[in-house]
Amino acid sequence: MPTWLASLPLWRWSAIPGTALSSVDPTPRPGGITGPRSKIDAWCGAGLKRSGSVYLIAAAGGHADYAGNEVDALALNTERPAWTQLRAPTANESIIDQAQFYLDKRPAATHTYYATQFIDALDRLIVVGSSGLGDPSFPAPPPQFPYMGNARSFSFDMRRNEWDDPDHIAHYPGRGDYIACLCARHPWSGDIYYSRNSSDGWYRWTRSANRWDKLAGVTRSPWYAGTAVDPRRNRMLIAGGYSPALAEMRLLSGAPAGIAFSGPAAGMLHAVVNYPGVVYDEALDCYFVVHNSGGQIRMLRVNAETAYVDEAPIEGSLPPSRANGMHNAAQYVPELRGIVLAYRHDADVLFLRTSA
Predict the structure, then answer these.
(1) Can you list the residues of the chain whose pLDDT is less than 70?
(2) Does the reported pTM lie above 0.85?
(3) How far is CA 3 from CA 16, 330, 331, in A?
(4) What are the chain's domains?
(5) Residue 224, SS3 per DSSP
(6) Is 37 helix (H, G, I), strand (E, B) or coil?
(7) Spatial CA neighbour of 176 closest among 211, 127, 115, 129
């Protein structure tokens, strides 16, 4: 156990010194109105490589906020965690508007929402089915540019510290709106479960076959919900919505699990909005719903077996709200038994120990 972690109390959000994302701002700065802080503020999440507990933010920003597609990594299972830039951003002269990829065939920065997922068996970070910029200050794509739309996924190879070819991951074959849609990874198999807003159904991307399959006709208009997979029972918790929506448990097939929520905070669970995050704690066998409420970051705890809901027993002061929601920026870290969260570009990353 790293020394910085051993000294942390349970159930208290603690800053990891020297880990502000601003410490690796690229020079020269890529274009965009709000700059590198958009990697957190502009509706973006994160991923986690389980081995080594590496927290990752990639191709985050998008729209007219930020065009940088750099890949930043924070190795937590070390004595002195510090951000490193694994891949520098595309040069401004190669950036184009309204395409999934820039002229150098590297991904366009995007609002990543819940789409950032790390696939441990492949040692790759994937950003599923996102679009390009919406910034007319950059040139339009050249005629017949092949990388338009939003069916492709971005894939970053950690072995080479380089983005893969645009067609490395199979194209999503369905329909629907990708914005803040349902997206969750099975932490053991690496398969991804995915349903777009107002879409034709519930899909699985199978890691071992690099193939999309439609499993059911399940969708929502819109989702805007956090979700996490319980790998023991092969089901997931879905919480949140554009407006208050009933939380639900579903099987990985998309079918309802038929489980009713109970407990003193069940009503709060059904009222969560504003892009909540959901994680599954493998040591405690429960879900945590991380969400903005009343200007602060709060957490609900959901028993994975019984669906009993209460408030997480957080001690000390609560962090201030994260701009534009959690998405999947809160990640459970199995090696360290806690939750990591980058909540501001200019503030140290937070860690919450949930078990010893």
Answers:
(1) none
(2) yes
(3) 11, 22, 21
(4) 3-353 (2.120.10.30)
(5) coil
(6) helix
(7) 129
